[in-house]
Design brief:
four-stranded mixed β-sheet; alpha/beta; 8 helices; 277 residues; 22% strand
Amino acid sequence: MFVGDSLNRNQWESMVCLVQSVAPPGRKSLNKSGSLSVFRIEDYNATVEFYWAPFLVRSNSDDPDMHSILNRIIMPKSIQNHGKNWKDVDYLVFNTYIWWMNTFTMKVLRGSFDQGDTEYDEIDRPVAYQKVLTTWSKWVDKNVNPNRTTVFFSSMSPLHIKSLDWENPDGIKCALETTPILNQSMHLNVGTDRRLYVIASNITQNMKVPVHFIDITSLSEYRKDAHTSVYTIRQGKMLTPEQQADPATFADCIHWCLPGLPDTWNEFLYARIIAHS
């Protein structure tokens, strides 16, 4: 089960594409119910699942369909509502990053959504991230049996919004980029918040339950060419020709093409699984 945001969904889609070819037609199915999407392969009694929880803890962005909320508010200590859906699977793959990058501070609810509370405190992004991953790590340590379940945490997936970041002043975001960043001696700064990377790395290293930290960040930073760009979906539909002609507005430089980079992330995952089986 992949748990997290749309980048983890991107990796889940990659995994489904990679494994589905072994299942004969009519012996595989895909079902979505609320936050949970389940791909099932009958002949192997196996499922590959995705659970939508962009902050891992409760937030006002938890609706799997209506979550495009600019004023994002989280409850850093509230994870049980989501967590009860993650138990007793063989492999858990977590991530949370891109939804943190909307603002420099994070809105933390005072009280509970259930009580109708609306007041919040604004705290620095790394402080809030640390609180959330601490809540998550406590949940994993308490609820995961490491003899049954192997836990992974993916580092942040970078975005390529500003072509100046790779010294292309004439570029429009990641549109029309056809090669990776080839200058590996160049200091890469594509907007990745390394503070969150350090927090995730430190917390996952100091847990009771072993967590495999999958470092996808640096290699992905070079792949300015690998995003869906104008060949993407908005609100369930492919971009129109008019929208495709306006990459400055519509190019998606966050998500990745398939086949593509998320397949490499899954090769990392596969290698870890095989090495420990």
